[in-house]
Here is the input.
Amino acid sequence: MASTIPDHGAARAEVTPPVDRPGRIEAHGIDHIPDSERHGHPRELFSVWAAANVNYLSLVIGGALVLMGLSLWQAVGVIVVGNLFWVLTGLLATSGPAAGAPSEVITRALYGVIGNRVNNAIGGWLVSVCYFALNLAAAATAAFALVEKAGITANVPVKVVVIVVIAALTLAISVYGHALIIKLYLPITLALAGAFTVVALAVLRHADFSYTPGEPVTGVQLWALLVAGTTMIASGPLSYTTSADFSRYLPRTASKKAIIGWTALGAFVPSVIVCSLGAFAATAVDMTDPQNALQEILPGWFVPVFLLALVLGTISINALTAYSAGLALQAVGLRIRRTVSVLFDGAVAVALTLYGLLVSNFLDTVSNALQVIVVLSGPLMAVYATDILLRRNRYDGGALSDESPGSPFWFTGGVNRAGALALITGVAAAALCANTLYTGPVASALGGVDLSLPVGMAVASGLYVLLGRRSVAATG
Here is the structure.
């Protein structure tokens, strides 16, 4: 006769899921998050995106717009328009709670199980690691200056130690994962906001609010600059096709409007402010070397704090990048734990940074290559956003986790031809219109105006609407 005594230990094990909390290394990788483990509120996303967008590169980009030949207020207009693309980042974030999965898995619905591995290898892992290296190099430069101010000569061994320490701090956040990111990023946002308030007061005291270049740009050349500047600003939000990674723990019932709003607002507000500060500063100092130029107008006592803030801001953005890169590596098909994949990504990024800063101009080459990435990131964002709208955000997280040939997301030979063709065609159309490292025939015919961003996104989205309805209906 079978025992009727209840096994309370087994029951407790069954109903008590792993807890997603700051002091515990996150257990989940690309696997599905069950409803029983969902928690939090969309407003938590504000500080996640705010902390990542109060950073050194935003200052550099804002200053670059004025250096390109725009007037101050033309530059500010470009900054506002380019940052409106954060709304798309917010839209993509809504798919996280719907599926209980990260973006790296959800995009199997767009490209198929095998096709999505290629997408994650190139559009996910490779781009993320390159961005990690570039941001790490920027943080290291500020940290080298901080070390010099402490009376330590920044020779090669010291530089190596500095780079490794910054990377270690970054990877620690990424390894512990989601809960630590949510916990840390609110105080980081407040600390960075305080530091950049001092920067803002100094910059606004010296800025020339009526600044226009000595020889104002007009006509086709002006339009070319405006479009190029908007594309440069938009490359930030368009690079985050991974926003579902940070929203997937939210309850399935979380408000979609709130998710879009808090994500977009958290990124838009600080990015507009910091980029604009860079533009304002460019009317007063030489922003070809922002770090040293800004020190000329900052209070002497505040310079070390400013340098530390630059490092902290870069750690914030890189922790998100490394977190997503780790998930991308898992989604490529490597059967390794998320913690291992994050550490591997960090090791590669550190190697690239050391090589670029200490051996050659490799990072310059990578930086130039990333200017062309918008040719890829625009169509990637467009296809993903279009799928969310066509599918009305109905994603089956369990089915998406199935990588077998019997999966509904296997499609034909593991590839969703509708998504793959829409993406490839969108990228090709964008490439014809680009004017970055090369000039495409369309850009050449238009006098240098680069329409790669709107054309690539429009073609990719339009073609996916035409070709993807059947696949969406079959799997939605």
Remarks:
- The two ends are 47 Å apart (CA to CA).
